[in-house]
């Protein structure tokens, strides 16, 4: 192997806050402190890649991304506290206590450069020669379903079931 490289990046997040975003509505307008808790960020996020030149001048890149589930808030679907908002949580259930399934995606790229001009000695032209790069890129090569949201309302017939997923292969 003339070229071989391994790279990786891991991130851990633990953040406390009291809202789901800039314009979120509190779950209880009479008790704002009840919304203080874990943010909905994913706690773990890993990305890694391997790049290698394999025989016949073909370059292989294998990329992996693994993430823990995203947090979400379980709600009753009713206005239990009379504040005109139907985003109340069941008693004793903190904000962002639910977690979606984690995700794993593996991507693969194969490429080959064809040099169209050679020097007088037959060697590849360096630098300014014309070339064509042919490649095949497959995202989510294992075709794994990665859920990105679930039904979080207890009164829903689909409570706890997936409602969305990342793009498939």
Question: What series of H and E elements makes up the topology?
Answer: EEEEEEEEEEE
Give the overall shape.
Answer: elongated
Number of strands: 11
Helix content: under 10%
Mean pLDDT: 88
The number of distinct helices, counting runs of at least 4 residues, comes to 0
Brief digest:
By secondary structure, the chain is mainly β. It has strands spanning 4-12, 16-17, 37-38, 44-54, 58-67, 71-72, 98-99, 103-115, 131-138, 147-150, 162-165.
Explain what the structure shows.
- It is a single chain.
- The chain is mostly beta strands and 169 residues long.
- The chain is 0% helix and 40% strand.
- The chain is built from no helices and eleven strands.
- It has strands at 4-12, 16-17, 37-38, 44-54, 58-67, 71-72, 98-99, 103-115, 131-138, 147-150, 162-165.
- The strands form four sheets. A five-stranded antiparallel beta sheet has the order 1-4-5-8-9, with no helix packed on it. Strands 2-3 form a two-stranded antiparallel sheet. Strands 6-7 form a two-stranded antiparallel ribbon.
- It is elongated, with a radius of gyration of 25 Å.
- The model has no long low-confidence stretch (mean pLDDT 88).
């Amino acid at each position: 192997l003339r070229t071989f490289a391994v790279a990786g990046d891991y991130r851990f997040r633990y953040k406390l806050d009291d809202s789901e975003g800039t314009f979120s509505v509190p779950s209880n307008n009479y008790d704002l402190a009840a919304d203080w808790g874990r943010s909905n960020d994913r706690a773990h996020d890993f990305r890694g890649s391997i790049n290698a030149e394999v025989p016949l001048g073909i370059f292989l890149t294998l990329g992996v991304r693994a993430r823990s589930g995203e947090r979400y808030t379980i709600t009753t679907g009713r206005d239990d506290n009379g504040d005109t908002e139907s985003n109340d949580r069941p008693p004793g259930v903190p904000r962002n206590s639910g977690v979606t399934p984690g995700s794993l995606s593996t991507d693969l790229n194969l490429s080959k450069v064809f040099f169209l001009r050679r020097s007088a000695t037959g060697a590849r032209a360096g630098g300014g020669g014309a070339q064509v790069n042919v490649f095949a890129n497959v995202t989510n090569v294992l075709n794994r379903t990665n859920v990105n949201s679930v039904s979080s309302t207890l009164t829903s017939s689909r409570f706890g079931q997936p409602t969305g997923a990342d793009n498939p292969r």
